[in-house]
Specification:
With 486 residues, the chain is an alpha/beta fold. The protein has helices at residues 3-16, 35-41, 63-69, 77-80, 129-147, 161-174, 190-201, 217-223, 225-233, 251-263, 294-299, 310-316, 333-346, 357-365, 371-385, 398-401, 407-410, 419-437, 442-449, 453-469, 480-485; strands at residues 21-24, 30-33, 82-87, 100-107, 114-119, 180-183, 207-211, 239-244, 268-274, 320-322, 354-355, 390-391. The protein has four domains: 7-151, PAS domain (Beta-Lactamase), CATH 3.30.450.20; 161-322, 3-Layer(aba) Sandwich (Rossmann fold), CATH 3.40.50; 329-410, Helicase, Ruva Protein, domain 3, CATH 1.10.8; 413-469, Orthogonal Bundle (Arc Repressor Mutant, subunit A). Residues 6-54 form the PAS domain.
Length: 486
C-alpha cells in the first residue's frame, strides 16, 4: 500500500468520526480539517487550509484569518507535548459557533513537529500552574476577540470597568458616523483605535490626518485640500478629518475648522484626539490665559491650559471615548501583556510565548509612564530576549526589571544650583528656538509658545533689558573664610 493510500485511508477514518479533528504543520498553518470540523464550524474547511493557526497572528479584513487563529494550541504545547484548551471560534451574526474542549498533541520534535487537535471531553489533565494560568488568559483573549472582532485592537482588551466602558463607547462609535472625541494620555495607542473606528463606521470614506499643534488656518486648508476638493466636487461625497492634539491646536485654526465643518454640514466629520476630557469645559478665549504670567508661560513652569473652542467642544460632546492611563488599569495589564506576547510570538520575533508569574508581578508594579506603547515595546523586547517559552523578569528592559516602588523618590538628589539662572537660560532658549523655527516670524513663534504676539514682544524686550541692565552676579568663593563668615 502506498503512502498516499495510507493517508487517504487515515483521512477517511478521521472524517467518519464525530469528533472535530484538525492538523497544524510546523509553520503553524492548517493542513487538514475533518468533516466533523466542517459541521462544527459551519463552512467548507478547504477555505481554511493554509491559513495560520497561531494565536495573535495579524488579522486581515478576512474573517477566516481570525477564525483560523482561534484554532491554535495554547502556550506550553512545545514544552509539554500535550495540552488542553476550550476553543472559542469567532463566528458571525448569522452563525454562532459553540465552544468545545480540545486536546492538542504535538507529534515529533523541533521544527518538524506536527500538531493534532481533537475535540472532546478530557479529565486526565496534569496541571502545571503557570501553563494553566496562561491557558486561562488565552481563553479570556479568545473570548474578547470573538466578541469584539470588528474593533479588536490589543489596546482595548481588559477586564477593568474602565476597559469595559471604553469598549462600549468604541462599539457605539463603530456603528454610527458622527463627530467623535478621543481623550487619552500619551502612548495610549489612541490613533490606531480611532482609525479602526473610522474604518468600521465609514468604510472607504477618505480621511485626512493633521497635527493640531502645528496648524494655522492657511496650513489647515493646505493639509485637508484633497478631501475638501472631493466634498466640493460632489454633493454626495463624505470625508473625515482626524486631528492629533486637537486641544493644542491654535484657537484661530480651531475656529476655522468649525467653519469648514459648518460649510459642509454633516458631510465633513471630525475625529479629535485630545489629552484630557476636562478641556471640554475650559473656556477657549484669550482672556482665559490672563492668570498665567509671561515668565510661567514661556519657561514651562505652568504651561497655558489646553483649550478647545466652545463650538468645537459642542461637536465632540456628541460622542466621546476616554482611555485611562495604564497605571490606573492594573487588572488589565496581564491580559494586555499576554495579547502582545501572542502577537510578537506569532510574528516570529522570538521563542517567548507566555509570561511567568514573576514576570506578571513585575509588570503590575511598574507605573508605565508611556502607557500602552511602552508595554508593547517591552513585550517585543521580552519575546526577542527570551531563551525559552516562558518569559521571566530578566527578559524585560532594564527600566522594568530594576524598578522598585519608591525608587523614583529615593533617587532624587538636591543639587546646589541657581534656579534664577536656569529659568532665564531656559526662557532664552525657548524664545530663540521658536523664532528660528518660524524664520523670524514673531507671530508664528508666539503661536508655537502658546502666547499672543504682544506678550512675546514684551518678553523679548524684558529679557533684553534684564541682560543689559542687571549687574553681574558675584562668583561663589570656595575659600575657608567665606565658609566661616556664612
Amino acid at each position: 500500500m502506498t503512502s498516499g493510500t495510507k493517508i487517504r485511508n487515515l483521512m477517511r477514518l478521521l472524517d467518519a468520526s464525530d469528533a472535530p479533528v484538525w492538523a497544524i504543520d510546523p509553520a503553524g498553518k492548517l493542513v487538514y480539517l475533518s468533516a466533523a470540523t466542517a459541521r462544527w464550524l459551519g463552512l467548507e474547511v478547504e477555505r481554511l487550509l493554509q491559513r495560520r493557526a497561531v494565536a495573535g497572528s495579524p488579522v486581515s479584513n478576512d474573517p477566516l484569518d481570525l477564525l483560523a487563529a482561534t484554532l491554535s494550541p495554547p502556550p506550553g504545547l512545545k514544552h509539554r507535548g500535550t495540552a488542553s484548551l476550550r476553543v472559542q471560534p469567532a463566528g458571525d451574526a448569522k452563525h454562532r459557533i459553540d465552544p468545545i474542549d480540545v486536546r492538542f498533541v504535538r507529534i515529533g520534535s523541533g521544527e518538524s513537529g506536527l500538531t493534532i487537535a481533537i475535540g472532546g471531553r478530557f479529565s486526565d489533565r496534569v496541571p502545571d500552574e503557570e501553563i494553566a494560568d496562561a491557558a486561562i488568559v488565552r481563553q479570556q483573549l479568545d473570548a474578547w476577540r470573538k466578541k469584539h472582532a470588528s474593533i479588536a485592537t490589543v489596546a482595548t482588551a481588559g477586564v477593568s470597568s474602565s476597559a469595559k466602558r471604553m469598549r462600549a463607547r468604541i462599539q457605539v462609535a463603530a456603528n454610527v458616523r458622527t463627530h467623535l472625541g478621543f481623550f487619552a494620555p500619551a502612548g495610549a495607542n489612541c490613533e490606531s483605535i480611532a482609525l479602526r473606528v473610522h474604518q468600521q463606521s465609514a468604510p472607504r470614506e477618505p480621511i485626512a490626518i493633521v497635527d493640531g499643534p502645528l496648524m494655522d488656518p492657511e496650513l489647515l486648508d493646505a493639509s485637508i485640500v484633497p478631501v475638501v476638493n472631493q466634498l466640493a466636487n460632489s454633493a454626495d461625497a463624505k470625508a473625515t478629518v482626524l486631528v492629533r492634539g486637537l486641544d493644542e491646536m491654535p484657537l484661530d485654526a480651531q475656529r476655522h475648522l468649525v467653519q469648514l465643518i459648518s460649510s459642509y454640514s454633516d458631510r465633513l466629520r471630525l475625529i479629535g484626539l485630545c489629552s484630557d476630557q476636562s478641556n471640554l469645559d475650559v473656556p477657549a478665549d484669550e482672556g482665559s490665559l490672563a492668570n498665567v504670567s509671561d515668565r510661567e508661560v514661556v519657561i514651562g513652569i505652568k504651561p497655558p491650559p489646553r483649550q478647545i473652542d466652545a463650538a468645537l467642544a459642542d461637536l465632540l460632546a456628541s460622542l466621546t471615548v476616554t482611555i485611562e492611563p495604564l497605571a490606573s488599569r492594573v487588572e488589565d495589564i496581564p491580559l494586555l501583556a499576554a495579547a502582545l506576547v501572542d502577537s510578537h510570538h506569532a510574528a516570529r520575533d522570538g521563542v517567548g510565548e507566555r509570561l511567568s508569574r514573576a514576570a506578571i508581578d513585575a509588570l503590575v508594579i511598574y507605573p508605565w509612564p508611556n502607557n500602552f506603547e511602552e508595554l508593547d515595546a517591552a513585550m517585543r523586547h521580552a519575546v526577542r530576549n527570551a531563551t525559552r517559552e516562558s518569559i521571566g523578569p530578566e527578559n524585560f528592559p532594564l527600566a522594568i526589571r530594576s524598578f522598585r516602588p519608591g525608587d523614583s523618590l529615593a533617587r532624587r538628589k538636591v543639587q546646589n544650583i541657581s534656579l534664577d539662572e536656569m529659568l532665564e537660560s531656559f526662557e532664552l532658549k525657548m524664545i530663540k528656538s521658536a523664532v528660528e523655527i518660524s524664520d523670524g516670524n514673531r507671530a508664528a513663534a508666539a503661536r508655537l509658545l502658546g502666547i499672543t504676539r504682544s506678550r512675546l514682544l514684551r518678553r523679548i524686550d524684558a529679557v533684553q533689558t534684564e541682560a543689559t541692565t542687571s549687574p553681574p552676579r558675584p562668583k561663589k568663593s570656595s575659600s575657608p573664610s567665606d565658609g566661616e563668615s556664612a
